[in-house]
Specification:
Length: 150
Amino acid sequence: MNRVEYLREWRKRNPEKEAIYLERTKERQKRNRKKISAREKEYRRKHPEKIKIWNQTYLQRLRKERPWAYWHKQVKARCRNKLLYYRKVGIKYLLSVEEMKELWFRDKAYNLSKPSIDRINTVGDYTFDNCRFIEHTENMRRKKGVYHPN
């Protein structure tokens, strides 16, 4: 049993403790939000080159070692960004990292030269049944309307 499964079981067995824990966590975050964000801003202001290098190396390492986690992070950010089309239209990202990993191996994305995640029904959300990994070029053709599946 991994950590996620254990926590799910614990929450089912202890709903009242879970409620207390969530309430305390929210209170702690509210109290410390200003302090934490001030420290983060100050560090980012003093060390912009370190932040830039860290972000680049982190994403490169993630893409190399756990590509499904990289795609999870990218698509989730795409759906949460208020300025992008996905958020404006209301497209939701409803996949976990484990489901993204399962998709990665189900579609054998590791064999693709440039994998790209695709929603089968372009109007639907990012769900396990509505997503697949295909070649990037094929995905671009689908977006332009040139690709017609048989």
